[in-house]
Specification:
Blueprint lengths: L2 E6 L3 H10 L8 E7 L3 H6 L5 E3 L2 H7 L4 E4 L6 H10 L3 E5 L6 H14 L3 E4 L6 H11 L6 E9 L10 H11 L2 H15 L3 E9 L10 E8 L4 E7 L12 E8 L2 E6 L8 E7 L3 E6 L4 H18 L10 H21 L4
Parallel strand pairs: 1-2, 1-4, 2-3, 4-5, 5-6, 7-10
Antiparallel strand pairs: 7-11, 8-9, 9-10, 11-12, 12-13, 13-14
């Protein structure tokens, strides 16, 4: 039995990330039967024989679907998610779950009340690198873990290309944490716990956005793990050459993991485990948004078929709330420390 999806949102990520995922080999028992966007041009871009809607609410009410994939901005997703839940549909929502922690909390509570299957698309959980880190940690090679650190730096499509308006929109909503929110989720995915303390400083690089395009965070989970994150959408954003950095370090009493990727050095990641019981280096080829989303789709269908107790990797609405809470606290503290609050 296939799970029939309606996709809301055919912007840049909808077209380049989500829509192609339905055709990936790993997207088993999934069928895209309807799409929705407020732009007729975006709807005309879709060549599949699917139902097309300009209104998400009309699609939810009329389309032959079991689930709704919400791929619009966090400032527009709340009412669509709530309408889908009210109609008894399963929902996958892009990160961030909502525009504020208060809205994310409300959505998480509504998910619980509705009993509907729900996931937040933190697709980096499915990447081969993250899965390897999860396995090494669960096998106990690091002992008692005390710290996790991230560097997530990129230019967000540059400030002067035809995608500059998209970059501006993302920065206006969450600044450097549009992508950095993935790392806030990864910390809890790998190590558990909920956010207890968040402190942050921001850098604006002369740009006129409220949330900082670059943010440095130190946080603490309630399991006593200390997290650091440098997240940037300003990294080489104003120059032609491109560079990016995507690093993770995890340190415990019995060993450490270091995962490194530098764009100029290629697309592969080098992941090393150095522990009392085992030392290993693994080179992992880069995956992609669509391939990881396809795995999420397939797992979502499996849980839909077999019940909520089915083991799964995808993020819950509560995970989405925790990530949004940390995002909001970090931006507020960065603004306060810069005298911008």
């Amino acid at each position: 039995m296939e799970m029939r999806f309606g996709l809301v949102g055919l912007g840049y990520h909808g077209q380049h990330g989500v829509y192609p995922a339905f055709d990936e080999p790993d997207a088993k028992d999934v069928k895209l039967t309807a799409v929705c966007d407020v732009s007729q041009t975006n709807l005309d871009w879709v060549q599949k024989p699917v139902e097309k809607y300009l209104s998400a609410f009309e699609m939810i009410a009329k389309a032959p679907i079991d689930a709704v994939y919400v791929a619009v901005g966090c400032d527009r997703s709340r009412e669509i998610v709530l309408a889908a839940l009210a109609a008894g549909k399963a929902v996958i929502c892009e990160k961030p779950l909502a525009a504020t922690a208060e809205e994310a909390r409300f959505i998480a509570d509504e998910v619980r009340r509705s009993g509907c299957l729900f996931a937040v698309n933190f697709e980096t959980r499915y990447g081969r690198r993250m899965q390897l880190l999860k396995r090494w940690i669960s096998e106990g090679y690091l002992g008692e873990i005390h710290t996790i650190g991230f560097d997530k730096m990129w230019d967000c499509h540059k400030s002067f290309t035809d995608t500059a308006p998209r970059r501006a929109r993302l920065l206006s909503l969450t600044g450097g944490l549009d992508c950095g929110i993935h790392q806030l989720d990864q910390a809890r995915f790998l190590l558990g716990g909920n956010w207890e303390k968040i402190h942050a400083m921001g850098a604006w690089f002369g740009e006129d956005f409220t949330p900082p395009p670059h943010i440095s965070i130190v946080g603490k989970l309630d399991n006593n793990v200390v997290m650091s994150l440098n997240a940037s959408l300003a990294f080489t954003s104003n120059i032609e050459p491109r560079e990016g950095l995507d690093n993770v370090t995890v340190a415990g009493t019995e060993g450490v993991i270091a995962a490194r990727k530098l764009t100029s050095a290629g697309t592969d990641s080098e992941v090393t485990l150095t522990s009392r019981r085992r030392c290993e280096k693994v080179i992992i080829p880069q995956g992609g948004h669509s391939s990881d989303i396809a795995i999420l789709l397939a797992e979502f269908v499996k849980v839909w078929k077999n019940g909520p107790e089915t083991p799964h990797t995808f993020a819950s609405a509560e995970d989405g709330y925790q990530a949004q809470l940390a995002t909001e606290l970090a931006i507020q503290d960065a603004l306060k420390n810069a005298g911008k609050a």
